Amino acid sequence: MENEKAQRITMLHQMYNFYPKKLVQPPGCAPNLLLTMKLTILLTVVAIFQASAGSFAQKITLSERNTPLARVFDKISGQTGYDFLVSTDNLRNAKPVTIEVHQEELEDALNQVLAAQALDFIIQDRTIIITKKPVNTKNNSNNPIKTSTLIGRITDTTGLPLFGATVKNKTKSLVKIANETGVFSIFAEVGDEIEISFIGYKTYTFQLKSLEPGIQIALVKIDSNLNEVSIVSTGYQTLPKERATGAFVRIDSTLINRRVGTNILDRLDGVTSGLLFNKGLGTGNNASISIRGRSTIFANPDPLVVLDNFPYEGDLNNINPNDIANITILKDAAAASIWGVRAGNGVIVITTKKGRQNEQVRVTFNANTTVSSHPDLFYQPQISPGDYIDLEQFLFNKGYFDNTINDGYSTLSPAVSVMLQRRDGQISTADSAFQMNQLKGADIRNGLQRYIYRRSISQQYALSIDGGNKNQTYFISAGYDKNQLNTAGSSYERFTLNANNTYRLLKDKMGISVGLLIASSSNRSNSSAYTAPLYPYEQLADKNGNHLSVLQIPGLRKMYTDTAGAGKLLNWNYSPLDENRANSVSHMTDYKLNLNLNYSLIQGLDLGLYYQYQKGINDFDQLYDINSYYARNLINSFSQIDPYSGDVIRAVPLGGINNTNSNRYTSNYGRFQLNFATNIGNRQRLNVLAGAEIKDYQSSAVSGTLYGYDPSTASSLPVNYIDYLPQYYGSYNSATIPYLNSKTFAVDRTRSLFTNASYVLDDKYTLSASARRDESNIFGVSTNQKGVPLWSTGLLWAINKEGFYHFDLIPVLKMRATYGYNGNVDKTTSAYLTAQEGGANFWNTQYTNIVNPPNPSLRWEKDRNINFGIDFTTRHNLFSGSIDYYIKNGSDLIAYSPIAPQTGITQFRGNAADTRTNGIDIVINKNSISDQTFKWQSTLLFSYVKDIVTDYKVKQPSNSQIVLSNYANPLEGYPYNAIFSYPFSGLDKAGRPNGILNGKISQDYAGITRSTDPANLKYMGAATPLIFGSFRNTFSYKNLEVSLNIAYKFDYYFRRPNVFSGSNAFGSYGYKFADYDKRWQVPGDEFRTNVPALTYPLNTAQNAFYQGSEVLVEKADHIRLQDIRLSYNFRGEHSKPVLRNLQVYAYVNNVGILWKATKQPLDPDYLFSAFVNPKTVSLGLSTNF
Amino acid sequence: MLAACKKDFLGVKPSSGIVNPTTLENYQSLLDNNTILNQTGALPQMSSDEYFIVGKSDFDALNNSTYKGAYLWQKDLYGGEINQPDWNHLYKAVFYANSVLDGLQTIVQEESNRERYNEIKGQALFFRAFAFFDLIRNFSTVYNQSTAATDPGIPLRLSSGIDLIVQRATVQETFDQIIKDLNQSRELLSNNLSKANPNRPSKSAVYAMLARIYLYMGKYAEAGNAADECLKISNTIIDYNTLDLTTETPFSYNTDETLFFSTQVYNYDATTGYTSYYTNIGVSKELIALYDQYDLRLSVFFERNKLGNFNLKRGYVGSGFYPFTGLATDEIMLIKAECAARNNDPATAISTLNKLLTNRYEAGHFVPLSAPNAATALAVTLRERRKELVWRALRWSDLKRYNRDGAGIILTRTLNGQTVTLNPNSPLYVFPIPDDEISLNGIQQNIR
Predict the structure, then answer these.
(1) Out of A115, A416, A430, B442, which residue is the most buried by the measure of CB atoms under 10 Å away?
(2) How far apart are CA A660 and CA A586, in angstroms?
(3) pLDDT tens-digit profile of A1030-1078?
(4) Alpha-carbon gap, residue B427 to B412, rounded angstroms
(5) Which residue of B has its CA nearest to A903?
């Protein structure tokens, strides 16, 4: 393919050489022409394409009387399909034409038309170029051709003009830009070196052999992928990256399709500079992805996702990655400020595939299957069952369980039950020992691994058809995904349908496009899935596979449930394997309808009207049938046995329990936009867009519960929700039947004005500016009135286009700088005192809770962005890339401030904090030299980002707040996600940990945790990586391609979760703690371990100290081989079209960690997960024909 | 697009669950938040002598250092724990009341809404006074006429603005404010005690509250008058002979004696909640010994547990899990009796007591009391007060005032053979202001 295209360009060049006689340019003409051109708009092309005309008549018939020359050209063009190329100056000075010809040859007719004019013509590749006639030939021989103007036209290989292509006279250091029809003119002399370039196309350099006007140069696309790189989209406009002042990242469809999976956002992981997937941070207000660090504290941390023109309101899982043409990430103010208050966290603009003009029908098909390895539940280190039983025995002997034992029914672990039976003499020592040994030998993770968890299997199919002629383009696709998930009973299924049609009407003046996206998915899951066992030695099935019952919270001890009700109640045991199937299904449907209208009012001024309607419905249905533990437990709990008749009285009727929840939203977006583009002279260009936008988003949710539900008839029975009803156990307990019926709604409205402009001079300097103002119904009127106009400016300097630039090693060098403001919004705050419905009080009266004290000074968060960037390409395009340095200053950030409790609240949410973030994003591509059978391409992404909370008005009340809740309590001078710890000074002779308080070794744990002196703390580092990125290598040999992506994260820390800290084994901590076997046990152990001795009673302060101590903080740095992709392309080798573009591929994801700093058996990306994302292997094929 | 031109496009409220309280209905609904406004602190209950922790292992098993600190009257009461409900929760109630009082100023009073407006304003003032009193009896020394003008009281927050930090007023200023609020509330509230909403105060609750406060202050004449005014409006006493003595829930959420409903904060179930099956604590044996065999209160209030100790039943909270600390006619009758005795009117004291006790004894077995003099009448009244008002969080403030008046009551706890003593008028009777309050605004801490 490459070779084929290369040949075509040479041929065109030869064609141009083939007509030497037409190159004769009279002397004296050129300076005149040049002068004229400078003063007028470059050229007007009177061009009427007649794409439908199958055969062009070469014979001309004309009958004109005093007709303007332009009209005559128009008619000739109409009859022949040839384009005319003529300067407006020449047209203006032309005389009217009177002519009568019938079936004349084209050239003869033209000679007659121009006979009385001072004009001549040249026919070049179906374009008729009108030039001036020589004026004076007398001195010809004495003045050989020295200076002139080169006029020509730049197209792609299909003949479409390349608007914006650069023509550079390297000898004379002049640069010109091709206009809308691809035509250019540049001052040149024979022998000059001319360079034609356009981003995405191969730069073409040649020595000027003659000045024949009408040279047509067809540029060859470098690679279809690179071509896409050139255009970035902000959601409001598309612009060549070459002219973008802002920090954009462009992910093209090849990169999107490199990964395999259902979800679109996952495809960005590891291939986008400055974008971090936050893993291992645990719970809290953390976004799953962050662009250039964290820009907010407690407001919405998520980037805005735009699908085509408007923010996407639906579930991102409903976007089929196969429908996506490209993704642009907007990182700085100039890129993102067009989105105003929603751009503070960066913007991800997703553009769907569209049909292409003048393309034949193309069918694309992609199918793949992904299988994961089995989840490894032994990933997290935890206490062994034997050790746990020993610990329970220790606590049992201390009387720890006595209170629970004495109530007669609360859950007692199997081991404690045996201890109790032994203590009460119900079983013998031998029986007790036997049963204990049985328990010690069991490990629930074996059962979970075998029965509950499984391999995931995902299948994906996508089919699309697209094409277009001159007046219409279309793209229609259908996708189907079917995933079996990692836990038994859970599965996911998705259908998507995407149709897009664009019509060009009124001689291309009007464009109408209609888009429809329908996604329907269903998610089945088991909400009773047994994934959180209470004891490590539980068993799901015996040796023969018989299902066993286990304990559950809230629950009852087995000794109680075995006998309660003397057979009159329902079975009260919980056997997970009897319910190991889906009982919940969530059906989600999203519709999106887009209507776009573009109308060209006058040359350069376009009007755009955009409308989007989106509707989403999510129906959740959960059925606990009568056999489920949930239903049996609830029915039994609310049962009473009449002591006289022995009848069972059931407040919760027999039958299933059906929970339903229906969420729906509708959103309407409207936008009115004017685009203006004009060239001022031939050196300047101005683009302006301005408009207004309005949004109305409404959502509602209805939920309810049916009791006594019979799924076969959908019938249900009424219950008493009001009264406190007695519980079967505990004789004095009472409760109300869970009442889950509710209806809520939300309305989100915004009104915005925006404008964006760019000015280009000589294609060397680009200046951009944008501004936006938003108003919403969130804050209330007074804050809206104040308003926060958000704006940005940017500058781009193409240094390599300067006359003085002769650095051949780096032929392309551009510098960018932007400055401006983005905003962010927090929907949970309000300027007013706000309250929320709390439900009914004891006396069935509705009451409300105050959720927000009044805050009249509430305003939008603001984020000031400064970005400096350099884009470069080295000689022969071997290396290319960009380096960006940025500073972001967040101000007026919404933050919780701890506040004196006497105010009635303990945390106040308002504009309380400032942050400062700086960072570097580097992208370096090593491009392959083409025309080799072996190719090697690499991309190195490097990001450095450091955020610091610069102002946080209220000090933390104690060091423990800083250590253990560091995510909720930012500290001035440190990152938002900062890890602090207590200095640790080993264990003492009794195995108690030593801390340091006021410079001295201390065991005053309460004093250490309560201290407010920062000197008693040690700053460990950030919890999010300061340095991260990836190194992606693609090797190809002939049609075989291998691609590997290595991801790295450096310079950050984590605190080990769930470790034994002396007495945290009791209380509500469960059994999932590590290091128990490493604890101090005998004097001398203090020299080999830092894990404290087991102590009783509970010592909360010591636990808090140890858990916050420095010994539990680990370096999280690691390097991971993320994935490997292997593909084979059959292209060009087969005559059958289906096979011509066939690619088969294999993809391995989550390959594994190559290196990590910590010796702990933990993966820093999966600190809180029960298992590391299993390795997956995908096989697939894609083709288009 | 057209809608955009209308001014109210952005005026629509963003969520159904969100209310910007502006109407009288909104304010009533804030005041009906009983889990905020109808609660009192638990520390006085946890520190009082009405219960004991059975064994060292039971003590060790308590998962909260405030339990332990309160039981053993530790100098470091909280052991580093912050977010103390005894302080935070009560100030939250003050914030709610102030929010309503501030909001009411924006409502135009007309003939049509005046009654309801006054009712809501009266409630808000009562709630604020009720919370202030709970705070001052716990976090300040007992009211002492001679030192009240200089003893540190509590921060008196009179507006809802959270940008303002208030220092501690004096004890005298605090009581002046409380009484002022209650007097104003009395003018605004109607006589109608709402049976449907006992969480809302009425005029009788105001008198009852005044009686309780004056009694604490040692102003017996005023206390007696307030008690009389209260009993003029509501004086129903339940005959315990009509109750089921076996059930743990002999009462409903709204008893005939309830004048105003409140409970202890929902935080300390192990030592203050009704956890009948728990054997880790028992009702003070000394207290149990005060009831004779025909006293129905032994069965109505208590039940025996596995270990032979007594556990508490649920009392006037119906099926609630946390003890009743509101106002009821039994307490007011006891105040009336005590004031009469202290004002040298033993006859009134004894007749009032007899009126109460005849409803507390097994029918036919009650022997009317008599007292030869005021001192005896007082002693009998105080004993009956202790027997009647169990777990109402009144014992601790009673101990404070008895000791102020020279009773010299010494409390002791024994755990694992070790004995801890609390001397009369010890500074340990005053709870420390929580650490987070001190560190966030630096108000004056109590010296313990």
Answers:
(1) A416
(2) 10
(3) 999 999 888 899 999 999 999 999 999 889 988 876 655 578 889 999 9
(4) 16
(5) B162
> Chain A within 8 Å of B20 (Cβ-Cβ)?
yes
- Interface contact A724-B319, CB threshold 8 A: yes
Which of A80-84, A549-553, A655-659 is predicted least confidently?
Answer: A80-84
Give B 57-86 residues with CB within 8 A of chain A. 57-65, 76, 79-80, 82-84
Q: What angle do CA A656, A658, A662 make, to 5 degrees?
A: 170
Check B57 against A402: CB less than 8 A apart: yes
Q: Which of A848, A954, A955 sits opposite B19 (nearest CB)?
A: A848
Contact at CB, B33 and A751, closer than 8 angstroms: no
The two most distant CA atoms of chain B are separated, in Å, by 89
A864, with CB counted inside 10 A (0-12, 13-18, 19+), is middle
Answer yes or no: do B58 and A837 touch at CB < 8 A. Answer: no
Q: Is A899 on the interface with B (CB under 8 A)?
A: yes
CB contact under 8 Å between B58 and A1009, yes or no, is no
CA dist., res. A290 & res. A283, Å (int):
15
Q: How far is residue A1105's CA from residue A964's CA, in Å, rounded to a whole number?
A: 10
d(CA A427, CA A1178): 55
Identify the helix (H) or strand (E) that includes residue A240. strand A238-240
CB contact at 8 A, B290 and B2: no
Domains of chain B, each with CATH number or no CATH: 2-266+323-441 (1.25.40.390)
Q: Which comes out higher in pLDDT, residue A807 or A408? A: A807
For the segment A14-33, what is each residue's pLDDT rounded down to a tens digit?
Answer: 222 222 223 233 333 333 33
For residue A321, say if its preceding peptide bond is cis, omega within 30 degrees of 0: no
Q: What distance in Å separates residue B145's CA from the closest CA in chain A?
A: 26
Query: What pLDDT was estimated at residue A1067?
Result: 59
pLDDT exceeds 80 at position A87:
no
Choose the closest CB to A407 out of B60, B98, B277.
B277
B34/A906 Cβ within 8 A: no
Q: For residues A318-352, b (16+ Cβ closer than 10 Å) or e, as one string?
A: bbbbbbbbbbbbbbbbbbbbbbbbbbbbbbbbbbb
Residues of A in contact with B61 (CB under 8 A): 399-400, 402-403, 1097-1098
DSSP per-residue string spanning B21-50: --SHHHHHHHHT-HHHHSEE-SHHHHHSTT
Closest CA to B404 of B176, B217, B212, B224: B217
Please state, in angstroms and as integers, the Cα–Cα distance from residue A372 to each residue in A200, A490, A1119, following that order: 38, 15, 21
Distance CA A1062, CA A1094 (A): 5
Please tell me the distance in Å from B433's CA to the nearest CA on chain A: 11
d(CA A202, CA A927): 13
The whole-model pTM stands at 0.74
Closest CA relative to residue B253, chosen from A843, A725, A735, A738: A843
Look up the ipTM and state it.
Answer: 0.89
Of A747, A843, A1096, which is closest to B14 when you measure between CB atoms? A747
Nearest-angstrom CA–CA distance, A470 and A357: 6
Q: Would you say residue A12 has pLDDT above 60? A: no
Give yes or no for B266 touching A (CB within 8 A).
no
Inter-chain touch A775–B12, beta carbons under 8 Å? no
State residue A8's pLDDT score. 31
pLDDT of residue A27: 35
Give yes or no for B34 touching A (CB within 8 A).
yes
CA distances from B41 to A407, A797, B132 (A): 27, 69, 11
Within an 8 Å CB–CB cutoff, is residue A1096 touching chain B? yes
For residue A889 the two structure tokens come to: 């200053």
Do A793 and A819 contact (CB within 8 A), yes or no?
A: yes
Residue B95 to residue A842, Cβ atoms within 8 A:
no
